[in-house]
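Assess this one:

_____
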Amino acid sequence: MDTLLRPWTPDDAPIILAASVEPMMDRQFTAQIDSLAAAEEWIALLASHRTDDTAYAFAVLHEGVPVGNVAVSSVERRHLTGWVSYWMREEARGKGLATRACRAVSEFAFSELGLFRLEIAHRLDNPASCRVATGAGYAVEGVERARLLYDGVRYDTETHARLATD
């Protein structure tokens, strides 16, 4: 795989902890990351998902240092589908890394995992995420009303998809 991506390792825990305290990043983690131990547990959880063939997460590297995450999750073997997500640390945003990482993980999902359809959704108030999805070849499919709930507020999302044949 491209040297842009590699699996997360326990040594990356300080980077995960630092990322988790950036504004709005708490939404990117399935559990609260408030210590190195919690960051190590998150990384171990990612490894277990890989072993279970349910999700594959990768550190996005810039000059050899992890600055973000890209993943294909909700791997569903019957229909050969998956869900792509990504986040970047503040200092790495706007450099095209998320788009490149999204393309790379998509190619991994199609060629290595044998998936056929990948989906991405983003909040309508997140135009940067929309640029990543479209830049990575994901076609807009529509809006899901009130899909997400954060801090008591519902948000619409725009769904994108990419097929192995695209």
